[in-house]
């Protein structure tokens, strides 16, 4: 079944603010603008910084790269004393729009305050996460009590007299005025529309809630503490994973993918179990323009590239997590050859008991486990077997190598080594770009055109364009 999502009930206003004009400065530096409005930080084993990102792209084709596993993180609601607020803390810590703009300009150099203010206005008015963080700020101010209000009034008088210093602003020291036992938490929990055939803009109450009771949270919720709790990782299966990291691509806080996301119409399988959409199906659907609805994600230029890389890494991590959770199946497959050998020994020795001791003794030697083929959960550092079905894994590459060598052994050494590269000036690519777009802004178009041309080339070779083809290997 192909993936099918309801059309978004999205007003075009937000896109017109900063995306529809490709010459706008916000479009060129869209990753920087998204970064200062994001609620979460994005990290990997290696990610190029925004400053390096801009320097590299001045002299060549832009590309976004990460290395290793990718993760999104959130900290406490309030920063430590005398520390600049970052990411979601800006919504809690800064008292007004002017302070929001100042904090965000301090996070990344070279941003236009007028554009920051315009985006901030729209986010405050329409983004459900922003509204709930602002609600949390108001509640924290109420709990700070009269001392905080008095400090705010005193700071205002100092500003008028020209005696104020930046560190005197009580809004940046809200931590000092809260009771020591303050235990306010913000619970991020997405409540999807009861009717999956609609995709209305989520309200603040549907994406977050302010809670006091620690036990009043679901295991899938994200709980942010006022002061402590450390850095929390937002897992890939959370519906908040994407809207928290990409507020400019999900301006209304629309929920992203989760593992139990149903298809439109709630279809079921033969056993009556609801059919759910895989992450790959979801991304294939949202990264596609349609006549009735244009994808806002594909308007993000360099931010679109970051989103695509992030989602590909998420797909890989989900596949690896599935493999890790189903190790018994893969371990038994790897032991099949060992079992066959033991059976031959058993037949030769005519002694099944000897063969069984050999099997379990050898397995215990390599796993440290004697009673079962399933390793114990507490066995830290256990080996995880990645099967050959995982594209790019060591067993996958080894099997492809063996297949290639078998073909060479049968047909002889290859005669031609052909390399096909993509040309961003192909007319099929340029005809489908919007005004002001470059090929690097639309990886979806480039990938489709390249695959069509690659298939055409392979068909021509198979039909004898250069000569009769005995065998062909391609990567």
From TrEMBL:
Which GO molecular function entries does the Swiss-Prot or TrEMBL record give?
A: helicase activity
Q: Which InterPro entries match?
A: Helitron_helicase-like (IPR025476)
- Pfam families xref list: Helitron_like_N
Q: The Helitron helicase-like domain covers which part of the protein?
A: 282-473
- Record keywords: Transmembrane helix included? no
Identify the keywords attached in UniProt to this record, alphabetized. Answer: ATP-binding, Helicase, Hydrolase, Nucleotide-binding
Superkingdom of the source?
Eukaryota
Query: Can you name this protein?
Result: Helitron helicase-like protein
Tell me what organism the protein belongs to: Phytophthora palmivora
